[in-house]
């Protein structure tokens, strides 16, 4: 049985803690000590998440396998805080919406530390601080970022993830998958946040023009960045996720509802910044970026 540490107690972290604990010893790392157990609501039943709890201050031994499912804007701080506690040959798995600069993260790794990225369409929301409700199944994709991770990716996939996570896919080109996930985020998150609607509502014709414009800009910027995405394929992917997660509230919609900072800077904001780097514009992404930022400040 492998030891896996998960940083934080967000919805995605608790969902994966519950899944991974089927065949691994899982420990949740929280910012402050807690004696209260965590629970998951699934298929109408509530049960305790079978995971130990600790804090970084209490962590004594080096962490070998670490899942870091934090918001994109929290990643740099999370890595600074967790790095002293990682073993010299740690497997580090990052998961968040939008895009972050993983090059900056990789530069601070030790030579034998492996960096992976995981993306999922599995849905969850937190009705209270210690409970997650599983709101929908979805594909989880996993892949390597640095050279060390490429050497280990099959064994990490087979031993840690495959026995517990379904459906699951090992992808050879994580950069392309991250862009594909970004397109899904762009199509769903800002509009669902602004309209405070469930994902399925975005499939109505009312939103079709905006979604087309958003993804057309994203695919063009991806092409300028050397990633060849087909607009038709990304539209189909986004609408399929809307269908599969029709009853879900996106993470951005939940953040706006609960007056939390969103990840829009790493989603629409990322497209706008990359466009500027190439001397072009992305007006629809910029408009939604600013609208969501206004909602954040309200």
Automatic annotation (TrEMBL):
Q: What does this protein do?
A: Catalyzes the NADPH-dependent reduction of ketopantoate into pantoic acid.
Offer a single GO CC term for the protein: cytoplasm
Ketopantoate reductase C-terminal domain sequence ranges: 173-296
Report what the protein is called: 2-dehydropantoate 2-reductase
Q: Where is the Ketopantoate reductase N-terminal domain?
A: 4-145
**What pathway is this protein a component of?**
Cofactor biosynthesis; (R)-pantothenate biosynthesis; (R)-pantoate from 3-methyl-2-oxobutanoate: step 2/2
This entry's Enzyme Commission designation comes to 1.1.1.169
- Supply the SUPFAM superfamilies for this chain: 6-phosphogluconate dehydrogenase C-terminal domain-like, NAD(P)-binding Rossmann-fold domains
Q: Which Pfam families match?
A: ApbA (PF02558), ApbA_C (PF08546)
Annotated family:
Belongs to the ketopantoate reductase family.
Q: Which GO terms describe its biological process?
A: pantothenate biosynthetic process
Top EC group? oxidoreductase
Keywords for this entry?
Answer: NADP, Oxidoreductase, Pantothenate biosynthesis
Quote the catalytic activity from the record. Answer: (R)-pantoate + NADP(+) = 2-dehydropantoate + NADPH + H(+)
Record the organism: Pseudoalteromonas luteoviolacea DSM 6061
Any idea which GO molecular function terms this record carries? 2-dehydropantoate 2-reductase activity; NADP binding
